[in-house]
C-alpha cells in the first residue's frame, strides 16, 4: 500500500462550502443565498464575457506561459517594470509558490492567526516551522480581530524566510494602518520576505490603510499579493498576481510556476477586466455602501462587528458560531463559520443581505426563547 508523506496525511481534508442549488433543493425552497466565499454578487463584466468568447477559439493551444500581455498591463497600471510582476493561477497558487521558493524544511513562515486558512497549510507541506501570532482586539474589551504587528515582528528571527500580513485580514475584515505597518517593515530582518496579502485591497476606504505597492518602494524584501477573484469578479477563472520590489524575488517565484497554469481564458479575462477599471470601481462602491449598511444593521441588533475594510463582515460569536451558521443554513443562508470563533459573512446584494438579516433575526429569537425556556443551545 502506498502512503502519503506524514505532513500530507496530517492536512485537514478540504471541506467545500454548501452549494446553494443543492441546499435549496434539500430545503424545498426556491433559492438559497450563498454569502460564504467573498465573491462579488455581480455577473462577469461585459468586456470579460466578450474576451472569453474571442479566446475560446484558441483553447486548443497552450496559453502564453509568461502571460506577457497581462504582465505588461499590470506593470503599466501600477507603474512598475514587468520584471517585478508574476501572474499566477489564483493568489492561492502564488502563496504556494512563495513557500516553495523561499522555505527550506525547518525554516520559518510567520503570520497572524486567525488569518487566511492557507498559510498554516503551506508551512506544513513545505516542512517549514509555522509561527502563528494571535490576533488582538481592535477595540477595548472586544474579541481578538486584528494584527499584533509588534508581536509579529518579535516572532520573526533569522530562520524566518516568509511572513504574510493579510491586510485587510481574512476573515475578520480589519486592516492595519500606515504607521504601524511601516514600523513593522522597518523591524523585519532583510532575510525575511514580507508578503502583504492584499486580496481585498480594492474595498479599502480608510485613507490611513496604506497601499502595499507604495509601502513596498525601496524595501527589497517586500512583495504585494493581489487577486482578480474578488473585486474584479473572476473567481472562477483563477488568476492573481504578485508584485515585488526586487526583480530577483519575482524571478524566484516564477521558477516554481506550474507550467501553463494561468489559462488563456484567465489571461484574456484579466486583461479585459483591467480595461474596465471604471466599471469595477462603480461595483466596488456599491459593495462598500452595502457593507456599511450591513454592518450598521448588525450593530443595531446589538452584535459586535469590527469595522471591515473588505467585502465581508465578521461576527465574533465564539461558541455560538457553528450552531448559528448551521441554523442560518437550515433557513437557506450559507455563511462561513469558524468554530469557536466567529462567522464570516460576505457582502451580497441588498436583497441577499436582507434575506440573511431576516434569517439571523429568526435564529437569534429562537436562541432567546431557548434561553428563556431553559433549552440548552446546541
Ligand atoms: C487573503 C486571501 N488571499 C488569497 C486568496 C486567494 O485568492 P485566489 O486564489 O482566488 O486568487 C484569498 C481567497 O479567498 C484570500 O482571502
From TrEMBL:
Chain's role: Aminotransferase that catalyzes the conversion of aromatic amino acids and 2-oxoglutarate into corresponding aromatic oxo acids and L-glutamate.
Chain ranges of the Aminotransferase class I/classII large domain: 33-360
One GO BP annotation of this record: L-histidine biosynthetic process
The protein's enzyme class: transferase
Cofactor: pyridoxal 5'-phosphate
Assembly and interaction partners: Homodimer.
InterPro entries from the UniProt entry: Aminotrans_II_pyridoxalP_BS, Aminotransferase_I/II_large, ArAT, HisP_aminotrans, HistidinolP_aminotransfase, PyrdxlP-dep_Trfase, PyrdxlP-dep_Trfase_major, PyrdxlP-dep_Trfase_small
Protein name per its UniProtKB record: Aromatic amino acid aminotransferase
Catalysis: reaction(s): an aromatic L-alpha-amino acid + 2-oxoglutarate = an aromatic oxo-acid + L-glutamate
PANTHER family xrefs: HISTIDINOL-PHOSPHATE AMINOTRANSFERASE, HISTIDINOL-PHOSPHATE AMINOTRANSFERASE 2
Record carries keyword RNA-binding: no
Residues where N6-(pyridoxal phosphate)lysine is found: 230
EC numbers on record: 2.6.1.57
Family designation: Belongs to the class-II pyridoxal-phosphate-dependent aminotransferase family.
Keywords, in A-Z order: Aminotransferase, Pyridoxal phosphate, Transferase
Species this chain originates from: Geodermatophilus telluris
CDD domains hit by this protein: AAT_like
Alphabetized GO MF terms: aromatic-amino-acid transaminase activity; histidinol-phosphate transaminase activity; pyridoxal phosphate binding
Keyword Transferase assigned: yes
Amino acid at each position: 500500500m502506498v502512503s502519503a508523506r506524514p505532513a500530507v496525511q496530517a492536512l485537514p481534508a478540504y471541506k467545500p462550502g454548501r452549494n446553494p442549488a443543492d441546499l435549496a433543493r434539500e430545503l424545498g425552497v426556491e433559492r438559497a443565498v450563498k454569502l460564504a466565499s467573498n465573491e462579488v454578487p455581480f455577473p462577469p463584466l461585459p468586456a470579460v464575457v466578450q474576451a472569453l468568447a474571442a479566446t475560446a477559439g484558441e483553447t486548443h493551444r497552450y496559453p502564453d506561459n509568461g502571460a506577457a500581455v497581462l504582465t505588461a498591463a499590470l506593470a503599466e497600471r501600477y507603474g512598475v517594470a514587468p520584471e517585478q510582476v508574476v501572474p499566477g493561477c489564483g493568489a492561492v497558487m502564488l502563496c504556494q509558490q512563495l513557500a516553495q521558493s523561499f522555505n527550506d524544511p525547518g525554516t520559518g513562515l510567520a503570520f497572524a492567526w486567525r488569518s487566511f486558512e492557507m498559510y498554516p497549510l503551506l508551512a506544513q507541506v513545505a516542512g517549514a516551522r509555522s509561527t502563528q501570532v494571535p490576533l488582538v482586539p481592535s477595540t477595548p474589551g472586544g474579541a481578538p480581530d486584528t494584527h499584533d504587528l509588534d508581536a509579529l515582528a518579535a516572532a520573526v528571527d533569522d530562520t524566518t524566510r516568509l511572513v504574510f500580513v493579510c491586510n485587510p485580514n481574512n476573515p475578520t475584515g480589519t486592516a492595519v494602518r500606515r504607521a504601524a505597518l511601516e514600523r513593522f517593515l522597518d523591524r523585519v530582518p532583510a532575510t525575511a520576505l514580507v508578503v502583504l496579502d492584499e486580496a481585498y485591497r480594492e474595498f479599502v476606504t480608510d485613507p490611513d490603510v496604506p497601499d502595499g505597492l507604495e509601502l513596498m518602494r525601496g524595501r527589497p524584501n517586500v512583495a504585494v499579493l493581489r487577486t482578480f477573484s474578488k473585486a474584479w469578479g473572476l473567481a472562477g477563472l483563477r488568476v492573481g498576481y504578485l508584485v515585488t520590489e526586487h526583480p530577483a524575488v519575482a524571478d524566484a517565484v516564477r521558477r516554481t510556476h506550474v507550467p501553463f497554469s494561468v489559462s488563456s481564458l484567465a489571461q484574456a479575462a484579466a486583461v479585459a477586466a483591467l480595461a474596465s477599471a471604471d466599471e469595477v470601481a462603480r461595483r466596488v462602491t456599491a459593495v462598500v455602501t452595502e457593507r456599511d449598511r450591513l454592518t450598521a444593521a448588525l450593530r443595531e441588533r446589538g452584535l459586535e462587528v469590527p469595522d471591515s475594510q473588505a467585502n465581508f463582515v465578521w461576527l465574533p460569536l465564539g461558541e455560538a458560531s457553528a450552531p448559528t451558521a448551521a441554523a442560518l443554513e437550515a433557513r437557506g443562508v450559507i455563511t462561513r463559520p469558524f468554530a469557536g470563533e466567529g462567522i464570516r459573512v460576505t457582502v451580497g446584494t441588498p436583497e441577499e443581505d436582507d434575506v440573511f438579516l431576516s434569517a439571523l433575526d429568526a435564529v437569534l429569537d429562537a436562541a432567546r426563547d431557548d434561553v428563556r425556556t431553559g433549552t440548552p443551545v446546541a
